[in-house]
Amino acid sequence: MSTTMKAAFYEQFGTPEEKPVRIGELPKPTAGEGEILIRVKAAGVNPVDAYTVRGMLKDAIPCRFPLIPGWDVAGVVEETGHAARRFKKGDEVYAYARRPEIQHGTFAEYISLPEAYVAKRPETLSWEEAGGIPLVALTAWQSLFDAGKLEAGQTVLIIGASGGVGSVAVQLAKNAGAKVIAVASEPNHGFLKELGADSCIDYTIDDVAGAVKDAAAGPLDLIYDCSRGDVLSKTHDLLKEGGHLISITNSKPERRDDVNFQYVFVEPNAPQLDQLAALADAGKLKIHVSKTYPLDQAADALRDIESLHTKGKIVIRI
Ligand SMILES: NC(=O)c1ccc[n+]([C@@H]2O[C@H](COP(=O)([O-])OP(=O)(O)OC[C@H]3O[C@@H](n4cnc5c(N)ncnc54)[C@H](OP(=O)(O)O)[C@@H]3O)[C@@H](O)[C@H]2O)c1
């Protein structure tokens, strides 16, 4: 059996123009203590993967070269390590694979992970759809429910609603019984309505705050900012006193003192992945894969995700 695997990797940080990411052979990992070895079938691409290649996370999380990008995986269990007992060879699984040190990512034929990170994948979805779920769906879940305390009957404003995180957040908020006001460009409004948004607002119009106010017909309980634009600063006065403001893009936004603010940085959580798989298999969580790339074109996928205008997900098929 081969001791190497095909992987996308880089040995120094760089911009897309400097082409740091290349394809080659690296040692195939093995399943260590408490770990499982996964044959990767699909790996979601996220903006953070591109930021990591640029070196933008290096002061926050230790990075080690050669570094394989990618934190999302759906695949098949190939081997179980000593003391790993939750999964067996052949199980179809998915995971959010960020570890305390960044080196072994999912843009490769294999990854080994602590089994505590891993859950059974949704059975009814394609590999591409399953591989696009973990990072964005855990982010949306932890933001809306753990941090944002969203409840049925509340009104939530989701900014950046048609992208990876936002498109899942719209569905989770709607499933939870909330009224959902979604902000994205106009061409994506039909998509957002299909996902369950009650109202859609175009962030390019002159009076975004007025449009949100009319759609909400009352104060907002939660603002969830998944964008890097200026809609939050224009709308945060519409949040009720004691409401929740959650951002995944800015840890220090300008804000009022009378609201509960949290910056969320997504954490691995297998029990939440189990709940997300159940929602997907019940038809209550859909993943729109707008584009797939082969592993050989991982650098192109990373360039593509940096547009910050992805509809749903970009996924690498391996
Ligand atoms: N902290 C964390 O744990 C965490 C986790 C995941 C993601 N993130 C960050 O969150 C952001 C969103 O991630 P993602 O994967 O969902 O990205 P994405 O798939 O690229 O989606 C970006 C979304 O932002 C919208 N958008 C673009 N420009 C906008 C503007 N000026 N005003 C309002 N909305 C705008 C896009 O809508 P249109 O296409 O219609 O323009 C799209 O809906 C990224 O910056 C990412 O790095 C953080």
Automatic annotation (TrEMBL):
Name of one Pfam family that matches: ADH_zinc_N_2
InterPro entries assigned to the protein according to its UniProt record, in alphabetical order: ADH-like_N (IPR013154), Chloroplast_QOR (IPR052733), ER (IPR020843), GroES-like_sf (IPR011032), NAD(P)-bd_dom_sf (IPR036291), Quin_OxRdtase/zeta-crystal_CS (IPR002364)
MF terms (GO), sorted A to Z: oxidoreductase activity; zinc ion binding
Domain Enoyl reductase (ER): 14-316
This protein's name: NADPH:quinone reductase
Gene3D superfamilies: Medium-chain alcohol dehydrogenases, catalytic domain (3.90.180.10), NAD(P)-binding Rossmann-like Domain (3.40.50.720)
